[in-house]
Amino acid sequence: MNILPQTAKLLALVATVLLVGCERPPTDTVQHGFRGTGMVQVYNPRIVEQNTDLHAAPAALPASAPDGTRADKVYKNVKVLGSLSVGEFTRLMVSMSSWIAPNEGCTYCHNPANFADDSKYTKVVARRMIEMTQHINADWQPHVAQTGVTCYTCHRGQPVPAQVWFKEPAQQNGADFIGDAAGQNKAALSVALASLPSDPFTPFLLENKDIRVNGDTALPSGNRHSIKQAEWTYGLMTHMSTALGVNCTYCHNTQSFSNWSGNPPQRVKAWHGIRMARDLNLDYMEPLQSTFPSNRLGPTGDTAKVNCATCHQGAYKPLNGAPMVKDFPELTRPTASTSVASK
Question: 164: helix, coil or strand?
């Protein structure tokens, strides 16, 4: 019996299995540092093309006149946007409907029998999210600059953004021969299927743990600079790389990843982005836990929270840098009536 054909088929099958998770060439590379440093960005043009629609910003409605009767003089229970003109207020409401719930329309947040009613949790949440958007654009310009964000940046036409995260349930320790798995080896999408802790968000985007990869001391209990603790840092870095669709060298100098000297300016942007996400999760998302119904909460009963992918969704700049907020100046600063808004 000639086994060569069977062997060839087997080898072809093995090769197919091994390559199925790889990106087929050609790929594009863009030099991101001095020649010889290896600081290049690698892009797959087919993936970029497939995601073109995802990162396309919708056209803005024609601007409305800022003069005229104020919205809170015409409509009841307007706690955040009352200082806008009726035209500006209506334009933003229509835009938000298309950004967040194009199928459900106004009734996703409003009681059609009484638009002033706050009985729908979605209206209460939306009011707080408007305040959060204004806060980002006004107070986090070191990260978002003048490009800013709108509701569409995260929602992309969906009531719930596609990229959010919840706390993971507590893990049992030492129940079997493998001992404490330390949150690893779950093949989680949050860390691009790597054998890293699958929840790199709680320590850094909710808590304020050190983001380090090594230390210069011995390893007492709780040392956040140990090799084991560094795996959470690598998990966060893997998430950020995937969320922005970039290599590590987008933010880091390959001569010394831990050294800030000679780094691209994007590293400072990322530093602010981590702190912005933590701020939003602590001051805006977590306090809404009692507002959301149980079916909108995570396995531990917490609210959905933001990470880098919530806005970026695979692009190094959300919506490829489209400055949507320039058409909605009411989202760049708190309006006069924000101080009386329900928290």
Answer: coil
Residues 165 and 309 sit within 8 Å (Cβ to Cβ): no
Distance CA 140, CA 136 (A): 5
Q: Compute the distance between CA of residue 308 and CA of residue 317 in angstroms, rounded to an integer.
A: 11
Q: Strand pairing partners for 268?
A: none
Alpha helices in 101-226 (DSSP H): 121-139, 141-144, 151-155
Residue pLDDT, tens place only, 41-84: 888 888 888 888 999 999 999 999 999 999 999 999 999 999 99
Which CATH number is 52's domain given?
A: 1.10.468.10
pLDDT at 118: 96
Same domain, 139 and 112: yes
CA–CA–CA angle 230, 246, 308 (5° rounding): 65
Mean pLDDT of the region 299-323: 96
Query: What does the block give as tokens for 250?
Result: 């987008």
Query: Containing domain of residue 209, as a range?
Result: 163-168+180-312
Is-contact 137 149, C-beta < 8 A? yes
Q: How many Cβ atoms from other residues are within 10 Å of residue 26's Cβ?
A: 9
Residue 231 and residue 212: Cα distance in Å, rounded? 9
Q: What is the mean pLDDT of residues 198-203?
A: 94
